[in-house]
Design brief:
By secondary structure, the protein is of the alpha+beta class. It is 29% helix and 48% strand. The strands form three sheets. Strands 8-7-6-5-2-11 form a six-stranded antiparallel sheet, sandwiched between helices. Strands 1-12-16-10-9 form a five-stranded mixed sheet, with helices on one face. A five-stranded antiparallel sheet has the order 4-3-13-15-14, with helices on one face.
């Protein structure tokens, strides 16, 4: 082989190597961009789910809040499920149960996002944990204990999924309330919840000492909050009616 042929062959090898190198680089770049696109998509989806959960939490807070009289709030969803589950609130004294109510909890779930409206409070849960984002109506003050309990009466809200359609749930709070005035005693409040840590923090911020008990033996714990000293208790039960409309 002549020197010119050797140089030509060497040049061709370098050219082929360069082409292969560029092809590999392009392949790696495509893979990297694909990975970035998937990650960005997940971030966008997670952000949208979190924003939707925050909006639902705000709507629950409006509907279940302490404002008097009749009011209405509509929760609109694009994804996820919403249902009412059985949960109980107890008022106890040293002799046992003074009052118990199957208040019901309204629960929104979408992937790892979860929002629960129960006993006047709204708890939002995600991969960071659970926290109370709208306070309950448990208010100790000056030798008294006020306990407001919204009782959910659901119509068509038993395990509704959006199914890819827009879903609207209307929460209507009626003016009807039942108030029970109770004599001074050492009262405790039991809140049945699968997220006890969030309720413990919330009630402790209101001056309570808390413990956990499965009061009715159904496997779901209750946070039992005790308040120091004897107090006159005011128990107010609010009637909240739910109506569901799908595909609006």
């Amino acid at each position: 082989m002549s020197a010119d042929s050797a140089v030509s062959a060497s040049g061709n090898d370098r050219a082929q190597t360069a082409v292969v190198g560029v092809a590999l680089l392009l392949g790696i770049t495509v893979l990297a961009v694909g990975g970035l696109t998937a990650t960005a998509g997940s971030i966008v989806e997670d952000g949208a789910a979190s924003a939707a959960a925050t909006r639902v939490a705000d709507d629950f807070g409006t509907a279940l809040g302490p404002a008097p009289g009749e009011r209405e709030a509509t929760v609109e969803l694009a994804t996820g499920t919403i249902q009412v589950v059985n949960r109980t609130v107890w008022l106890l004294d040293d002799e046992g149960v003074v009052w118990a109510g199957h208040a019901g909890a309204i629960v929104y779930a979408d992937g790892g996002q979860r929002v629960t409206g129960f006993a006047g409070a709204v708890v939002q849960s995600d991969d960071r944990g659970s926290r109370v984002v709208a306070p309950s109506r448990v208010a100790p003050a000056n030798g008294t204990l006020y306990v407001g309990v919204p009782v959910l009466n659901a119509s068509g809200a038993d395990g509704v999924s959006t199914g890819g359609h827009r879903l609207a749930m209307t929460l209507r709070t009626d003016a009807r309330t039942e108030r029970v005035d109770l004599p001074a005693s050492s009262y405790r409040i039991g809140i049945e919840t699968p997220t006890p840590a969030a309720w413990e923090r919330h009630l402790q911020e209101r001056g309570a000492t808390t413990a956990r008990r499965d009061i009715d033996g159904d496997g779901t714990p209750s946070v039992v909050a005790s308040f120091e000293g004897e107090r006159t208790a005011y128990l107010v039960v609010h009637d909240v009616r739910l109506a569901v409309e799908v595909g609006r």
